[in-house]
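User: structure tokens for Ubiquitin protein ligase E3 component n-recognin 4, please.
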Amino acid sequence: MLTTDLDGDDEKDKGALDNLLSQLIAELGMDKKDVSKKNERSPVNEVHLVVMRLLSVFMSRTKSGSKTSICEASSLISSATAAALLSSGAVDYCLHVLKSLLEYWKSQQNDEEPVATSQLLKPHTTSSPPDMSPFFLRQYVKGHAADVFEAYTQLLTEMVLRLPYQIKKIADTNSRIPPPIFDHSWFYFLSEYLMIQQTPFVRRQVRKLLLFICGSKDKYRQLRDLHTLDSHVRGIKKLLEEQGIFLRASVVTASSGSALQYDTLISLMEHLKACAEIATQRTVNWQKFCIKDDSVLYFLLQVSFLVDEGVSPVLLQLLSCALCGSKVLSVASSSGASSTSSTSAPAASGSGQAAAQSKSSTKKSKKEEKEKEREGEGSGSQEDQLCTALVNQLNKFADKETLIQFLRCFLLESNSSSVRWQAHCLALHIYRNSNKSQQELLLDLMWSIWPELPAYGRKAAQFVDLLGYFSLKTQQTEKKHPRLLFPHSSTLSGLVEFDGYYLESDPCLVCNNPEVPFCYIKLSSIKVDTRYTTTQQVVKLIGSHTISKVTVKIGDLKRTKMVRTINLYYNNRTVQAIVELKNKPARWHKAKKVQLTPGQTEVKIDLPLPIVASNLMIEFADFYENYQASTETLQCPRCSASVPANPGVCGNCGENVYQCHKCRSINYDEKDPFLCNACGFCKYARFDFMLYAKPCCAVDPIENEEDRKKAVTNINSLLDKADRVYHQLMGHRPQLENLLCKVNEAAPEKPQDESGSSGGISSTSASVNRYILQLAQEYCGDCKNSFDELSKIIQKVFASRKELLEYDLQQREAATKSSRSSALPTFTASQYRALSVLGCGHTSSTKCYGCASAVTEHCITLLRALATNGAIRHILVAQGLIRELFDYNLRRGAATMREEVRQLMCLLTR
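Assistant: Done. Predicted tokens:
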């Protein structure tokens, strides 16, 4: 180019260059404020784009034949161009254009691309593409030979990002050019561009400029993370406000009809997972964001009471990242070692496993520490300081009611052990990072919940573990809680006087609702009925299942017609026959849509939130079709003769070649369907479906008065059935008592025959074993089956009552609002949680033998922990604990339980 030969020492050449630059910049019209039409393609804007590319070329070139070193300033052209652009306000101009382009890129992100089954061929020029360098690269021109401005918006975005980058780069190396000023607006809009997912090319340019402006990767990541977190938290608040959940003065309020639907929960999960990804990878940035906005943590804590159980783990993860730090989280996730066992050996069992896990976690933590040391040595201490500051911040906002609701909700009520361990870790670090007064308050709150423990049985293990640890660590415990210790140590006797599990008159919803893990299940093994359309499989399942993932394996794939799009729908209504739901799209809910590539043989449909389904519909919505193959000859399914595709009738035997190869059904509405609508056979592929799921207890949702009547009728029929099963269960009692008497009567015969022959001994033992076997079969077989059936019925009754109460409450509120035109009554998050628990069956009967036995074990565990403290040990002995243990617990219960009691007595008497 001619400009490269200009001499910087010649005034005439300098004047010519300045004149050229001023003409080019004047052509752009940078002084005009209105750039709203800049993103519209027009001849004028195309010329402006070429001018901008020319200026970019000027700044990217140095003087030919220059003998200056690399470290010296740039050449005359690049320096003059940068100075001219800077003085004419090019940086601000580029920012205004970026603002106007942002709406365009956001609209591109929201618009789903239409699925094209076929595409027209692009025109191919016979001549070679022209050389448009340096404005356009040869490869780009080759790909856009027909129209180089086809991607005008992308080219414009690239230029308004590249020009400021080049100006700053030249200004940093040339002291005579003042540095460009990038204000807060630049950081905001560049961060907004990074939030757009469907523009990878633009994202690369934005990342490059933002990183250069920030100066370091750490500052760039922090700026980007803070903006991303702020955007997602605002999205969460907006989403919840649309559902009647508001944040006012740091307190979350909700109307009692604010139940979140699945689609809303999916959107909520997307926001939360984006925050969790940042919080896990760069914990310090998440903590700094929470420090900056002091309402976030308390807001998340309150929201955790209002959302579905599937969302709670992500909320707890966010709280844990902020309050526990990354190092503690890595150790906690790899080992489930309890806090009490780490402080006092008698406080919990399984210390050997905990030690083994802690060794493996130590190795992992060492690797993580080395990696963090490379990034920065002071990150650990900074995290610890932030953890302490955030715990103090949370303590400032959280009242007693909220903390009690948190402890009860996640440490006791949750049926997931992983959630209870998450809450355990969170509560432990809240305690450790709190001051003494807050520690005592937390301990007092836990002791106030202690009387409720018999209602939670086995689920109270983590709660008791924390209670023992806090009691040992907190000063003056022995003076504040002796009255609480005494009644619970003396009630150990009353907790073990029940007769058994399977003869309970009131089935326990804790003991009989064990935590069922997700597992892979073949769809064919749990379906009871299937119907088909030409593109859909409609399946009725054995019962309600919670489904987290669906895997589709495609075998015997034919390239003639391949699946392009799969839609997964679900329904949770009980139907007599699945045909009731066929061809009724309004009764289905869409769970996920996935796109397949040509020839793909396996697809995993990961659901952001597990769905509860009684019926599934898999729809093959779109296909890759080879139209050329449709004109080929086909094989007759009867005589195997070659038949032309059109009209598709065999000239030899007269058979229709488009009939189903399996059931010989002919679809007269569609000549060549993908699926046979009679038997579901597909000649193009074979599909196998695998569900990552678990069975669950669910009832039909109530949406109108007809559903309500059905629910009431269903509850009455279930109660009648429960009554019949209960009487059947009670009918086993006389037989069991009779067998027990026979076992006791046969026992004395054994020592009398000891001097006799071996045959006598074997016959006597055989007769005794026969009664024991009959007893075991009667109790563990027939009784257990009847009791399990009764438990499932009671669970369904509770679930139906819950749906009924929620529907009635919504109807009452709707009537109140329409009659008085007043707002719905609102509750705080903890009040809302307390109201929702009523009638849900979260707590069990305190008469349950299983829960009583579990609480007895928890009591022994807690007493073993407390007995390590000398002052508390003297109080326990003075209250007569040794006599209680000797009379009621030393000789009863399982062998492991009796061993625990012996160790406790050794602790008390040493």
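User: Anything notable?

Assistant: The longest strand covers residues 602-625.
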